[in-house]
Specification:
α7 crosses α8. It is built from 21 helices and 4 strands. By secondary structure, the protein is mainly alpha-helical. A hairpin with a 2-residue loop joins β3 and β4. The strands form 2 sheets. A two-stranded antiparallel ribbon has the order 1-2. Strands 3-4 form a two-stranded antiparallel ribbon. Among the domains are: 174 residues, MFS general substrate transporter like domains (Growth Hormone, Chain: A); 216 residues, Growth Hormone, Chain: A (Up-down Bundle). 50% of the residues are buried. It holds the Pfam family Nodulin-like. Keywords: Membrane, Transmembrane, Transmembrane helix. InterPro entries: MFS_trans_sf, NFD4_C, Nodulin-like. It is found in: Membrane.
Length: 578
């Protein structure tokens, strides 16, 4: 093994590229991952075409909810991607995801275009495949970026998660400007554009060692700040565009102009990571055709397990070094040399070495799980049914609501990480943020239950923010309470919790109540497959608010149970800063 390989042999169970071009480094890989993640959040666009499926195939609301739940259950396919990623290069994982995405959305498009009789279970399979393919791409993007930016994992994950949140808004904006009201063309765009980008850019994802110029911390942080600024600018632009368009009712020319401006901002965002590159002093030759795939030592996997860094979503790992400190551990016995690092890895290993079984038997884990099931499940159920909720209020701005939810999700993912870190620095436990999120979800459900059109705008924004915040706060809590070693499995379990909650609450509660109200409405007004008024979804949304309030009480119990643990972390942080 060469000296370069020995130096960078800490990328476990992967392949890395030999003979790289001078322009190909971890920043280029981050830019490619941002683009791919920008095409992986298409599950939020279901509300755009769900009503089209319902009318064309004459489905009931419960059947539409079943298709939406199947779409979310496609995330289960992402569990296999974690094992696959450890065996093959990242681009293979991306290509598998591209094939699944193409088949899933492609067959859905063929079904709508040809208007052929299709079993509902086949449509459920198509949606599960399409969304499952996006989960494979998400795995490759997240893992490579976490490995490439070990010292800034939380920051890198926050950037990628925000792209996932904005992807729905960007695709719907293009649809509203150029394709509306042709829903079939929108499905075709969802099929071809992401697949093409997956195949084109997937090969550029790879764990890459940092170069000499990456040791400049100021340069690295400046790039991250510019990227975050561009993301906020994009979110604000999309929000203002939606408000202006809603007030002035632009025609096709106005929508097209705003969409082109959005694409310019998006292009600038994806160029930022590589725009400030300083070329290496020995660029060498670009050995096209000599990219060699070399199996890398897996011995570093044990080293990664011993690290106290967490790969939790939107959580900067440098802030709190001891993620999984049990109640009986004397924190003061562990010497720390600097913030985010411990002097002795062996002592840290004793702290974070918790088995998966111990975690699954812990009350704290199931409290987190219940909060995410109740709140995240309610949020996902509302997102999947927002087209019908808007129609019941006689609103025609369904695409606008999808954009608001998507932008809100982006801001929720970014701000929740900052707010939860600020609370911890002030001495409060991070689970307190779950209580705030749950209360936000309660308020959102009550506002939507009123059936007022103006409350739909406020409610959709709050739903997006709260739902996005779960994906930032819950992984951080899991990593801090239970440690790094069991994190991957626990995070996957938490990740599928909203899907389970959404299926139960959407198809078995909201859909059933809607169909009963629709039957009463149709018996009076003689309108087929229609229901208008707050009573259509009002009862179900009030039920959701009660479930979320119970989840808020569970989050308070979790806060009380973990207060001592987080107090120790706060003391450790304070002593390290001093």
């Amino acid at each position: 093994m060469t000296s370069l390989e020995e130096k960078n042999g800490n990328f476990p169970n992967h392949t890395r590229r030999k003979g790289r071009c001078w322009w190909y480094d971890r920043w280029f890989a981050l830019s490619a991952a941002m683009i791919l993640m920008g095409c992986s959040g298409l599950s939020y666009t279901y509300a755009v075409y769900s009503e089209h499926i319902k009318k064309k195939l004459h489905y009931s609301q419960e059947q539409i909810d079943n298709i939406g739940a199947a779409k979310d259950f496609g995330a289960f396919l992402g569990i296999a991607s974690g094992f696959f990623y450890n065996l093959y290069p990242p681009w293979v994982t991306v290509y598998v995801g591209a094939v699944l995405h193409l088949f899933g959305y492609g067959l859905m498009w063929v079904t709508m275009v040809r208007d052929t009789p299709t079993s509902i279970w086949m449509l459920c399979l198509y949606m599960a495949l399409g969304n499952g393919g996006d989960a494979w791409v998400d795995t490759a993007c997240m893992m490579t970026s976490l490995q490439n930016f070990e010292d800034h994992r939380g920051t890198a994950m926050g950037i990628l998660k925000s792209q996932l949140g904005l992807s729905g808004a960007m695709f719907v904006t293009v649809y509203a400007a150029f394709l509306q009201p042709d829903v079939n063309q929108f499905l075709l765009m969802l099929t071809l554009v992401p697949t093409a980008l997956f195949l084109l850019l997937g090969f550029f994802l790879s764990p890459l060692p940092p170069t000499e110029k990456d040791k400049d911390i100021k340069d690295t942080m400046l790039r991250f700040r510019i990227i975050y600024g561009m993301i906020v600018l994009l979110g604000i632009f999309l929000t203002l565009s939606m408000i202006i368009e809603g007030r002035l009712h632009f025609g096709n020319c106005g929508r097209s102009f705003l969409t082109i401006l959005m694409l310019v901002i998006v292009s600038g965002l994806y160029v930022v990571p590589v725009a400030r590159k300083r070329y290496v002093s020995h660029p060498g030759k670009c050995q096209v055709g000599e990219i060699d795939l070399i199996p890398v030592r897996a011995s570093h996997q044990k080293h990664l397990d011993e690290k106290s860094e967490s790969i939790a979503g939107d959580f900067e790992t440098e802030s709190f070094p001891l993620r999984g400190v049990p109640e009986f551990v004397d924190v003061e016995s562990v010497e720390t040399s600097e913030l985010g690092n411990t002097k002795e890895h062996s002592e840290v290993q004793k702290i974070v070495d918790l088995s998966v079984w111990d975690c699954l038997m812990a009350i704290d884990f199931w409290l987190v799980n219940f909060v995410v099931v109740s709140g995240g499940g309610s949020g996902l159920a509302i997102i999947n049914n927002f087209a019908q909720i808007g129609n019941a209020a006689r609103s025609k701005d369904i695409a606008l609501f999808v954009q608001i939810i998507s932008v809100g999700s982006c801001f929720g993912r970014i701000t929740s990480g900052y707010v939860s870190d600020s609370l911890m620095r002030s001495g409060y436990p991070r689970p307190l943020c779950l209580f705030i999120i749950q209360i936000t979800m309660v308020i959102s459900c009550i506002l939507l239950a009123t059936g007022g059109v103006y409350f739909l705008y406020i409610g959709s924004a709050l739903i997006g923010m709260a739902y996005g915040a779960y994906w930032t706060v819950s992984p951080a809590i899991i990593s801090e309470v239970f440690g790094v070693k069991p994190f991957a499995i626990l995070y996957k379990i938490i990740g599928i919790s909203p899907t389970i909650g959404s299926y139960i609450l959407s198809s078995k509660v909201l859909g059933v109540l809607y169909d009963k109200q629709a039957a009463l409405y149709q018996s009076v007004h003689r309108e087929e497959n229609a229901c208008y008024g707050p009573q259509c979804f009002g009862f179900g949304l009030v039920y959701f608010s009660v479930i979320c309030f119970i989840g808020a009480l569970a989050s308070l119990w979790l806060t009380q149970r973990t207060w001592r643990l987080y107090n120790r972390k706060y003391q450790l942080l304070s002593s390290s800063m001093n």
